[in-house]
Q: What sequence folds into this?
């Protein structure tokens, strides 16, 4: 297993300087007498572990760019954004790049320091973004148990997501002492606001208020349920799980490999030749470009099986 990437260890940088993002959902919301789908988007600071949640009306490029505008207005412009190969993320990066290219040279010089660098993980490699994928799993598991298949008003969904954001930003970043006289642990809220939490005391309602017409009470019940499920799902996941302990030989250019594709039967997996490798900071190869006939594919090494070389025939 590799060391932490530089984005996880940015010193003397503000929160959300290096940010990972992804979408999750959908959720059903009530608009009058009809129901519509809404999605959530998470922005996670890779250094301070702070999170920012927002609601998307769709998962296209326009909705993503507007979410980025809202995020930068509240949290500041990040220097780099990490994500998977989603078409909305790719389309957003292309839109911003084209908008920057048509500006005048003087304006480009002024805005160069505000430009966001996009980093996309290789296809079929969710473990490259494990730091925010694990957070999404905890949020989705708790929200699916809390909200489930029921349709809630969009205002309730937005309130629940923002309060969930406050819960995630209030969790301790280190060891929590059982001695009451010890100093309180640092939380992401300390780094964002300089204090533990900005929320006022929680109101306790009966569980029967979940179906109440009072949307305020309904949102509070849902947040209470989220906290209970988050504790049961998140805390067991903090146990240390090691993998990739052994050191294996890195792939080299010219190696013949088989590409693992879970969507296809094993007999139909493609076989190609490695034409380019992408080493990480520690020197080990984490991804490679494979050429199959006239097509090229970029895949992580965990999805590539190196085939034995053919013996030399005299």
A:
């Amino acid at each position: 297993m590799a060391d932490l990437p530089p984005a996880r260890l940015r010193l003397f940088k503000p929160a959300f300087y290096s940010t990972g993002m992804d979408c999750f959902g959908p959720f059903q919301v009530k608009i009058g007498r009809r129901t519509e789908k809404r999605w959530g988007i998470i922005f996670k600071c890779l250094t301070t572990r702070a999170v920012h949640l927002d609601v998307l009306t769709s998962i296209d490029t326009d909705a993503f760019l507007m979410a980025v505008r809202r995020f930068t207005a509240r949290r500041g412009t990040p220097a780099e954004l990490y994500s998977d190969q989603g078409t909305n993320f790719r389309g957003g990066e292309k839109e911003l790049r084209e908008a920057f290219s048509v500006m005048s040279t003087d304006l480009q010089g002024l805005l160069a320091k505000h430009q966001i660098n996009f980093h996309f993980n290789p296809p079929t490699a969710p473990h490259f973004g494990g730091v925010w994928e694990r957070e999404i799993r905890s949020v989705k598991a708790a929200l699916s148990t809390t909200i489930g298949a029921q349709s809630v008003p969009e205002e309730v969904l937005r309130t629940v997501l923002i309060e969930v954001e406050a819960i995630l930003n209030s969790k301790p970043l280190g060891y929590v002492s059982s001695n009451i006289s010890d100093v309180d642990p640092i939380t992401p809220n300390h780094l964002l606001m300089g204090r533990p939490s900005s929320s006022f005391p929680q109101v306790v309602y009966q569980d029967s208020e979940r179906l109440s017409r009072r949307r305020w009470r309904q949102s509070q019940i849902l947040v209470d349920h989220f906290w209970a499920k988050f504790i049961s799902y998140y805390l067991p996941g903090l146990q240390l799980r090691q993998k990739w302990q052994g050191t294996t030989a890195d792939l080299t250019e010219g190696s013949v490999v088989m590409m693992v594709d879970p969507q296809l039967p094993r007999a139909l997996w493609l076989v190609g030749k490695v034409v380019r490798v992408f080493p990480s900071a520690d020197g080990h190869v984490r991804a490679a470009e494979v050429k199959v006939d006239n097509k090229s594919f970029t895949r992580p090494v965990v999805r590539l099986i190196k085939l034995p070389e053919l013996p030399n025939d005299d």
